[in-house]
Amino acid sequence: MIRLKYFPTQDYSFLLDENHYVYDHIETEDSLHIYIKSKEHSCACPVCGKMSSTPHATYKRKFQDTPIHCKQTFLHANVYKYDCENPECDCKVFMEGLPFAKPSQVRTDALNTLILATSMFLSNEGAGKVLSLLGVQVSNDTVQRLYDRIEFIGDPDVEEIGIDDAAIRKGQTYATAIYDLRDHHLIALLGGRDGGPLKEWLKSHNKVRLVARDRASAYASAISEVLPGCVQVADRFHLLQNLLGYMKDIFKEEMPPQIYIQDGNISEKAPEKILKEKTPEGSFLESLHYGNTPPVDPSGNVIAYDNKKHDLNSAQYQHQEKTREKNSN
Ligand SMILES: [Zn+2]
Question: How far apart are CA 191 and CA 177, in angstroms?
Answer without folding.
Answer: 9
